[in-house]
Amino acid sequence: MTAPTNKWRPVSEAVLVLGATMRLTRLVVADDLGLWLIRYPAYRWSNERDPRAETWRAKLVSGLDCPFCVGFWIGAGVLAASRFRLARPVFAALALNEIAAHLGSRLGDVRADE
Fold it and tell me: 70-92: b or e for each residue (b if 16 or more CB lie within 10 Å)?
């Protein structure tokens, strides 16, 4: 006897992957936590090695300000990680957090300086 299949599983997986990708992209590009943990150390790494403005390191780090650039690589990583069983609850938490943050920003639940 075969196990029953859930016809909505691919849709739910796609929604979770999309939500997790959106949240992680926002974390890197827009959130203070991403600034402190990812972008500032990357800027420091780039400037310590070579302080000139147009080096390959500076160009690489400037991509951290671009949601399309960051979103592509995060999306690729999320897709690769989606093969693991533990990824589903993590992606669900990230997707719910993205929905809450998006609704909060649209409904005015976020400070004006953010």
Answer: bbeebbeebeeeeeeeebeeebe
pLDDT at 112 over 60: no
Q: How far, in Å, CA of 28 to CA of 37, rounded?
A: 9
Count how many Cα atoms sit within 13 Å of the Cα of residue 89 in the half-sphere of its side chain. Answer: 2
pLDDT band at 73 (very low <50, low <70, confident <90, very high): very high
Question: Maximum distance among all alpha carbons in the chain?
Answer: 66
Q: Where are the domains of the chain?
A: 13-106
Instruction: Please give the distance of CA 22 from its chain centroid, rounded to a whole number.
Output: 5
